[in-house]
Protein backbone atom coordinates (compact mmCIF):
# COMPACT_ATOMS: atom_id res chain seq x y z
CA UNK A 1 0.00 0.00 0.00
CA UNK A 2 1.46 3.41 -0.95
CA UNK A 3 2.63 5.62 1.88
CA UNK A 4 0.34 8.56 2.51
CA UNK A 5 1.68 12.10 2.73
CA UNK A 6 1.84 14.07 5.98
CA UNK A 7 -1.09 16.28 4.96
CA UNK A 8 -3.27 13.21 4.34
CA UNK A 9 -2.19 11.60 7.63
CA UNK A 10 -2.93 14.78 9.59
CA UNK A 11 -6.37 15.02 7.98
CA UNK A 12 -7.13 11.37 8.71
CA UNK A 13 -6.51 11.97 12.42
CA UNK A 14 -9.49 14.35 12.48
CA UNK A 15 -11.89 11.60 11.42
CA UNK A 16 -13.61 9.16 13.77
CA UNK A 17 -13.51 5.91 11.77
CA UNK A 18 -16.20 4.33 13.97
CA UNK A 19 -18.72 7.12 13.40
CA UNK A 20 -21.40 7.60 10.74
CA UNK A 21 -21.48 11.36 10.30
CA UNK A 22 -24.40 13.63 9.58
CA UNK A 23 -24.06 14.73 5.90
CA UNK A 24 -23.46 18.41 6.69
CA UNK A 25 -21.00 17.54 9.44
CA UNK A 26 -19.08 15.21 7.12
CA UNK A 27 -18.95 17.78 4.32
CA UNK A 28 -17.81 20.59 6.60
CA UNK A 29 -15.10 18.29 7.93
CA UNK A 30 -13.98 17.54 4.37
CA UNK A 31 -13.96 21.21 3.40
CA UNK A 32 -11.80 22.00 6.41
CA UNK A 33 -9.28 19.37 5.32
CA UNK A 34 -9.14 20.44 1.65
CA UNK A 35 -5.78 22.21 1.62
CA UNK A 36 -4.64 21.55 -1.95
CA UNK A 37 -3.65 24.47 -4.18
CA UNK A 38 -6.57 23.67 -6.52
CA UNK A 39 -10.32 23.41 -5.97
CA UNK A 40 -10.65 19.76 -5.00
CA UNK A 41 -13.53 17.64 -6.30
CA UNK A 42 -15.86 16.16 -3.71
CA UNK A 43 -16.83 12.58 -4.58
CA UNK A 44 -19.43 10.22 -3.17
CA UNK A 45 -18.82 6.47 -3.03
CA UNK A 46 -22.01 4.50 -2.39
CA UNK A 47 -21.94 0.77 -1.71
CA UNK A 48 -25.10 -0.93 -2.96
CA UNK A 49 -26.59 -4.27 -2.01
CA UNK A 50 -26.60 -5.54 -5.59
CA UNK A 51 -24.77 -8.28 -7.43
CA UNK A 52 -23.61 -6.61 -10.68
CA UNK A 53 -22.87 -10.03 -12.21
CA UNK A 54 -26.62 -10.35 -12.80
CA UNK A 55 -28.19 -8.28 -15.58
CA UNK A 56 -31.32 -7.65 -13.51
CA UNK A 57 -29.25 -6.02 -10.75
CA UNK A 58 -27.40 -3.48 -12.86
CA UNK A 59 -27.70 0.13 -11.76
CA UNK A 60 -26.92 2.67 -14.45
CA UNK A 61 -28.26 6.03 -15.52
CA UNK A 62 -27.74 9.77 -15.47
CA UNK A 63 -29.08 12.81 -13.64
CA UNK A 64 -28.54 16.53 -13.29
CA UNK A 65 -27.40 17.49 -9.80
CA UNK A 66 -29.32 20.43 -8.26
CA UNK A 67 -26.17 22.54 -8.02
CA UNK A 68 -24.05 20.97 -10.75
CA UNK A 69 -20.54 19.61 -10.34
CA UNK A 70 -18.56 22.82 -10.69
CA UNK A 71 -16.98 21.55 -13.89
CA UNK A 72 -17.87 22.31 -17.50
CA UNK A 73 -17.37 19.27 -19.71
CA UNK A 74 -16.37 19.19 -23.37
CA UNK A 75 -19.17 17.84 -25.58
CA UNK A 76 -18.98 16.14 -28.97
CA UNK A 77 -22.22 15.67 -30.91
CA UNK A 78 -22.58 13.21 -33.78
CA UNK A 79 -25.30 14.69 -36.00
CA UNK A 80 -26.11 15.81 -39.53
CA UNK A 81 -28.04 18.62 -41.22
CA UNK A 82 -30.41 20.63 -39.06
CA UNK A 83 -29.52 18.62 -35.95
CA UNK A 84 -25.85 19.50 -36.43
CA UNK A 85 -26.78 23.19 -36.67
CA UNK A 86 -28.96 22.82 -33.56
CA UNK A 87 -26.07 21.24 -31.67
CA UNK A 88 -23.74 24.10 -32.61
CA UNK A 89 -26.33 26.66 -31.52
CA UNK A 90 -26.82 24.83 -28.20
CA UNK A 91 -23.13 25.12 -27.33
CA UNK A 92 -21.59 21.79 -28.38
CA UNK A 93 -17.80 22.03 -28.49
CA UNK A 94 -17.47 19.70 -31.49
CA UNK A 95 -20.09 18.62 -34.06
CA UNK A 96 -19.70 16.18 -36.93
CA UNK A 97 -20.72 12.90 -38.51
CA UNK A 98 -18.57 10.49 -40.54
CA UNK A 99 -15.72 13.01 -40.41
CA UNK A 100 -15.59 12.83 -36.62
CA UNK A 101 -15.83 9.04 -36.63
CA UNK A 102 -12.87 8.92 -39.03
CA UNK A 103 -10.90 11.41 -36.93
CA UNK A 104 -11.31 9.19 -33.86
CA UNK A 105 -10.54 5.97 -35.78
CA UNK A 106 -7.51 7.18 -37.71
CA UNK A 107 -6.03 9.83 -35.45
CA UNK A 108 -7.02 8.43 -32.06
CA UNK A 109 -8.52 11.82 -31.24
CA UNK A 110 -10.37 11.91 -27.92
CA UNK A 111 -10.56 15.61 -27.14
CA UNK A 112 -13.99 15.44 -25.51
CA UNK A 113 -15.52 14.24 -22.25
CA UNK A 114 -19.10 13.48 -23.31
CA UNK A 115 -20.40 12.17 -26.65
CA UNK A 116 -23.99 12.68 -27.76
CA UNK A 117 -25.48 11.18 -30.93
CA UNK A 118 -28.78 11.39 -32.77
CA UNK A 119 -30.36 7.92 -33.21
CA UNK A 120 -29.84 7.95 -36.99
CA UNK A 121 -26.06 8.29 -36.41
CA UNK A 122 -25.69 5.24 -34.18
CA UNK A 123 -25.10 2.85 -37.08
CA UNK A 124 -21.98 4.86 -37.91
CA UNK A 125 -20.99 5.70 -34.34
CA UNK A 126 -21.25 2.00 -33.47
CA UNK A 127 -17.97 1.47 -35.30
CA UNK A 128 -16.27 3.29 -32.41
CA UNK A 129 -17.50 0.83 -29.77
CA UNK A 130 -14.08 -0.66 -29.08
CA UNK A 131 -12.54 2.78 -28.70
CA UNK A 132 -15.23 4.69 -26.82
CA UNK A 133 -16.83 1.84 -24.86
CA UNK A 134 -13.93 1.04 -22.49
CA UNK A 135 -13.51 4.76 -21.79
CA UNK A 136 -17.17 5.28 -20.91
CA UNK A 137 -17.61 7.67 -23.85
CA UNK A 138 -20.03 5.70 -26.01
CA UNK A 139 -23.43 7.40 -26.45
CA UNK A 140 -26.13 5.40 -24.70
CA UNK A 141 -29.94 5.78 -24.55
CA UNK A 142 -29.90 4.89 -20.84
CA UNK A 143 -27.88 8.00 -20.05
CA UNK A 144 -29.79 10.28 -22.41
CA UNK A 145 -26.89 10.68 -24.84
CA UNK A 146 -28.67 9.06 -27.80
CA UNK A 147 -31.47 11.48 -28.64
CA UNK A 148 -32.89 13.79 -31.27
CA UNK A 149 -33.32 16.47 -28.58
CA UNK A 150 -29.67 17.50 -28.77
CA UNK A 151 -30.33 20.93 -27.25
CA UNK A 152 -31.64 19.47 -24.00
CA UNK A 153 -28.88 16.84 -23.89
CA UNK A 154 -26.17 19.48 -24.30
CA UNK A 155 -27.76 21.81 -21.75
CA UNK A 156 -27.99 19.02 -19.18
CA UNK A 157 -24.33 18.08 -19.60
CA UNK A 158 -23.25 21.71 -19.34
CA UNK A 159 -25.47 22.15 -16.25
CA UNK A 160 -23.68 19.36 -14.39
CA UNK A 161 -25.24 16.13 -15.55
CA UNK A 162 -23.51 13.07 -14.10
CA UNK A 163 -23.57 9.45 -15.15
CA UNK A 164 -23.57 6.66 -12.59
CA UNK A 165 -22.87 2.99 -13.08
CA UNK A 166 -22.34 0.25 -10.53
CA UNK A 167 -18.85 -1.27 -10.68
CA UNK A 168 -17.79 -4.89 -10.19
CA UNK A 169 -17.67 -4.38 -6.43
CA UNK A 170 -21.26 -3.13 -6.33
CA UNK A 171 -20.35 0.52 -5.75
CA UNK A 172 -21.16 3.84 -7.41
CA UNK A 173 -18.49 6.57 -7.57
CA UNK A 174 -19.55 10.05 -8.74
CA UNK A 175 -18.50 13.68 -8.21
CA UNK A 176 -21.01 15.80 -6.31
CA UNK A 177 -19.28 19.19 -6.54
CA UNK A 178 -16.20 21.13 -5.53
CA UNK A 179 -14.71 21.88 -2.11
CA UNK A 180 -15.47 25.56 -2.77
CA UNK A 181 -19.22 24.84 -2.85
CA UNK A 182 -21.34 25.82 0.13
CA UNK A 183 -21.78 22.87 2.48
CA UNK A 184 -25.57 22.94 2.09
CA UNK A 185 -25.30 22.67 -1.71
CA UNK A 186 -22.97 19.68 -1.50
CA UNK A 187 -25.35 18.01 0.98
CA UNK A 188 -28.30 18.67 -1.36
CA UNK A 189 -26.39 17.18 -4.29
CA UNK A 190 -25.60 14.09 -2.21
CA UNK A 191 -29.23 13.73 -1.15
CA UNK A 192 -30.44 14.05 -4.75
CA UNK A 193 -27.98 11.34 -5.84
CA UNK A 194 -29.02 8.90 -3.11
CA UNK A 195 -32.72 9.50 -3.79
CA UNK A 196 -32.12 8.86 -7.50
CA UNK A 197 -30.36 5.57 -6.74
CA UNK A 198 -33.29 4.54 -4.54
CA UNK A 199 -35.72 5.36 -7.36
CA UNK A 200 -33.85 3.07 -9.77
CA UNK A 201 -33.40 0.22 -7.28
CA UNK A 202 -33.57 -3.09 -9.19
CA UNK A 203 -36.62 -5.15 -8.25
CA UNK A 204 -34.41 -8.25 -8.01
CA UNK A 205 -32.40 -6.74 -5.16
CA UNK A 206 -32.96 -8.34 -1.76
CA UNK A 207 -32.02 -7.10 1.70
CA UNK A 208 -30.33 -3.79 2.51
CA UNK A 209 -29.89 -1.66 -0.62
CA UNK A 210 -27.82 1.35 0.51
CA UNK A 211 -25.06 -0.40 2.45
CA UNK A 212 -22.66 2.49 2.93
CA UNK A 213 -21.89 6.07 1.90
CA UNK A 214 -18.47 7.70 1.98
CA UNK A 215 -17.57 11.21 0.87
CA UNK A 216 -14.05 12.30 0.06
CA UNK A 217 -12.05 15.01 -1.68
CA UNK A 218 -9.44 14.57 -4.41
CA UNK A 219 -6.52 14.60 -1.99
CA UNK A 220 -8.19 13.73 1.30
CA UNK A 221 -9.38 10.71 3.29
CA UNK A 222 -12.94 9.45 3.20
CA UNK A 223 -15.63 10.24 5.75
CA UNK A 224 -18.49 7.78 6.34
CA UNK A 225 -22.00 9.24 6.23
CA UNK A 226 -25.24 7.98 7.71
CA UNK A 227 -27.53 6.92 4.88
CA UNK A 228 -30.60 7.47 7.06
CA UNK A 229 -29.64 11.10 7.69
CA UNK A 230 -28.91 11.76 4.01
CA UNK A 231 -32.51 11.05 3.01
CA UNK A 232 -34.13 12.40 6.19
Automatic annotation (TrEMBL):
Primary role: Protein L1 is also a translational repressor protein, it controls the translation of the L11 operon by binding to its mRNA. Binds directly to 23S rRNA. The L1 stalk is quite mobile in the ribosome, and is involved in E site tRNA release.
InterPro entries xref list: Ribosom_uL1_bac-type, Ribosomal_uL1, Ribosomal_uL1-like, Ribosomal_uL1/biogenesis, Ribosomal_uL1_3-a/b-sand, Ribosomal_uL1_CS
Keyword annotations from UniProtKB, A to Z: Repressor, Ribonucleoprotein, Ribosomal protein, RNA-binding, rRNA-binding, Translation regulation, tRNA-binding
Organism domain of life: Bacteria
Gene Ontology molecular function, alphabetical: rRNA binding; structural constituent of ribosome; tRNA binding
Subunit structure: Part of the 50S ribosomal subunit.
Similarity-based family: Belongs to the universal ribosomal protein uL1 family.
Presence of keyword Amino-acid biosynthesis: no
Organism field: Desulfoscipio gibsoniae DSM 7213
Pfam families the UniProt entry points to: Ribosomal_L1
Record NCBIfam families: rplA_bact (TIGR01169)
GO CC entries: large ribosomal subunit
Name of the protein this chain belongs to: Large ribosomal subunit protein uL1
Entry keyword annotation includes Cell membrane: no
